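Quick check before the chapter quiz. The format below is the same one you will see on the exam, so make sure you can read both the input and the output lines.
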Amino acid sequence: MSRVLLVCPEPLGHGQPAGIGIRFLEIARVLRDDGHAITMLSPDTGLGIDSIITQSAAHDVAIIQGHVANAFFQHAQPIPTVVDLYDPFIVENLHYFAERGDEVFRHDHATLMDSLTHGDYFLCASEAQRLFYLGLLLAAGRLNPVLFESDPRLESLIGIAPFGVQAPRLPKPRDLSAPAILFGGIYDWYDPIAAIDAVALVRQSLPNATLTFTTHPNPELTPQGKLAEAMEYARANGHAFVRFEPWAAYEERAVFFERFALALLTFPRSIETDLSMRTRVYDYLWCGLPIVTSSAPGTDELLTRYDAGVVVGTPPSRRLSTRRPAAGNGSETLPPQPPGTPAFHFAEAMLSILRDRARYETMADGARRFVDEHQWHRTLAPLRAFCNAPCAEETKDAFATKPALTPRPPSIFDRLKRRLRA
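Here is the expected output.
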């Protein structure tokens, strides 16, 4: 068995990890169950230059993600290193150009190219991501004729290891007459205003429906522009049904999710949605929540395969009547909306599920099938195989682009020092 060093870029000590932190915790659990010795470093649990030097010398293989790779490749002892690329941060962070200029992109680009140059094995979350990263690996010289000749599929270079879920949970009854609808955290590539407007329309038929957003546990790591926009929009319109709650602790999130009847995700289509695999989609299906969402290839494929939700891409072919009976209240009417209004189509999709208990239960059953097939020990199979026999990729020194002509990207420690001096 191997001694595995996990270098996580996200704080873990507060017990409220977001997607990257969750992934690292589950990687640690799966590899520990396989018999490997695990050491975890994170910004609040011992991650520093000295620990990188010391711990890399004491381990057989390292797993890293994101910007901590800069410090790792500058200071670590040379050991086989897995770079986890499941989160396409360089594409996500394109949204921050208007707010922060080109600094973010330049730093992300330098980080990514440095990681592609020095890593030995790479992980991604989907076939679309695999093709995207293969193109980048070709540009970095890592997809080369020697490697191709011995491995035409490049499976020894990059493997697909999507997100996973924990053991199945017993289904809980949900109240569809007064549905609590969950959106979750707001990043700047989402459209929370469309979600608020959609639930406002749902309330015309189900007046006790609510919408819940969660606040990020690490707000210093990501801009909060869309969150502030959603808070102001709800306040200005008197939408008391919109709630903003703290991020649930990892070990308590199942109880939190069980409060809700349905999950909603709204966002514009972009290259980010083409490549990303939403952590929350896996979590929501894990707890049996049907999902109504904007179209994104990875999510679309999952919800369609398991019949576990509705994708709102183009206007639905079957229109719902805007006048519906409401128990004890006569009838209520959805306000007139233009046919192309996104909020109207999201409201239609949610009501089509919430008014049909049989359809709702079919979707909940689909979510349970998804859970059975996406246990972490299955989704992490390529990583498990590599850790059983870690090895350096032998062609990288001969073919990889040499970044020596340009400065190395600053490490997380360099950037913190610069901010403290400002």
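If your answer matched, good. Residues 314-336, 417-422 have pLDDT under 50 and may be disordered.
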